[in-house]
Amino acid sequence: MVKVRAARAAEAEALTGLVMRSKAHWGYDAGFLAACAPELRIRPEEVTARRIVVAEDPQGTVLGLASLEGAAPLATLGLLFVEPSAIGQGVGRLLYRDVLRRAVEQGVRRLVIDSDPHAAGFYRAMGAVAEPTGPTAADAAVAAADPAAGPNGQLVRFEAAPAPLADWARAWTGGGRAVHVGNVAEFNAQFGDSSLDREQAAAHHYSCLAAFYSPCPSALVLPRAVPAGWMDLVCRQLGWTGVEVYDGLVDRGPGLVNAVRARPALAARLTGAGEPLVPWGLTRPFGLLTGRPWRSGELRYESKAAAHGLFERILAEGGHPGIVLPAQVRAATRWAAARLLAARARAGKSTVLKSEHGVGGSGTTVVTAGQVRAAGGARTVLRRLPRGPLLVEEFVEGPPDPGAARDLTYDGFVDAAGQVHEVGAALMDVTAGAYRGATVGPGAVPEWAEKPILAFGAAVGRELAASGYRGWFDVDFVADAAGRLAPTETNLRLTGPSIAFMVAARLDALRGAGHLVRIADRVELGARLPEAQLDELCADLARACADLGAVFVPAIPTGAFDPAPWLGVLVAAHGLEALDAAEALVRSGAAAVGAMFDAPTPAAP
Fold this sequence. Notes:
single chain, eight-stranded antiparallel beta sheet
């Protein structure tokens, strides 16, 4: 394994030779290299002052070097060179990340990089942002010494914003590694809601998101088997090492944690490492595994009716002028629900029909007055919905602009001491009542909405803490036509947006602050692929996104083997334009994999 250590003064001459060999790798002529030599020379007395480190292999061979120069809050990546024979082996990535880590420790918040034009693609892929700038003083000196250098003498300026791991992320798991338990189906099953698939197939796919339950996992525990190459790519993209994967533990049903408990050696390995165990949500089996007292009442507000009552009590206390609450009635019978729906339809109003529980939009149906008429009446509409109690809720008309923000969410958590931690607000993609994904990061949520979302979400968190709940939660909202927000439910578990927040925190610490992250639950694949070809596709998408300065992470790989194949994905970038471009690239690339099967067969000679 390649490791980074501080350079030694006695190595100065050898390191200078490495720098010049690395520079020459790009095909510069002797005159140009001679002009660069004085600037690139490393003197023994500079090694410590320039904070030079080297990357060396297990045999002690130096493969590259980097320097961090200047004082906080502004510093410079003065040198980053890799031995030509080691280029493309991850040495540069290791050194760059080490520079960012050291910059954070020293309080640097702005890192300037003057890159050789041939290395610009590397810095862009590492998350540095190109700055429009003219030639630097160094460029001018090089051009003067070698007028034939031309554009090859002009450096490309990049900047990065070194950032520590977010405070909330440190509080979530203590800032260290954690064991992630993908008990999605187990969490859902405890509610027995009729809107949920009995086999919980979707939940088993969603369990793959266990890879992202915290910014830095040590182990994943998954019900179904996952592709062998998937975690390798995720680890490369997010800078993780040593992540253990325990998969294929449950063939059918929701009993993941019980399957772990039935394997004493595995249970001891997971619980005995001194690392926190993070589940999708709290369950009785998880409490037994971890020794955590099980209090089923903690989850009372997972009920949509109970959450509505909680929102009502908070609003009755005042202090949230930008928040409105849609009326909701719990229908005692299907006949009562039909009467309520019919009355609203006669008044020309749309209605939201909800099951008591349900995830990702399951069990939530929006019915217009026209749909009731077209179906032949309210009773016919209800026959098509899942059995079980129904909540009949006022539909909140959205903004007139179809491109305006409509579905938003707040994420936070209550720690073991009962303190509420704000994570942030996100913009959700909800289509026909079903959750499809979310975007988090700077500017993702409109400025007018962010303050009321954060204030109301914090108020919900305080009530949850007082009720005894400990763990992650979110509050979902819809925006109305007047620019107000209506809370619709709270989820006492991790969520799709929470995964995006975790990845944003990791990427900010790994590549510099300010990432926008988008999770898309379902990206259609043009064809089912064998595992090896799926790995190849994901690697190709990762490289293509890197060329845009974006990051691609396959989040749910197991859907690729369904009869109608799909992927869950994460994309990240430092700007909305690059984020949108990365998502478009991923969707088109995923759809195009079927093109090879559509090629016409050559005519016989």
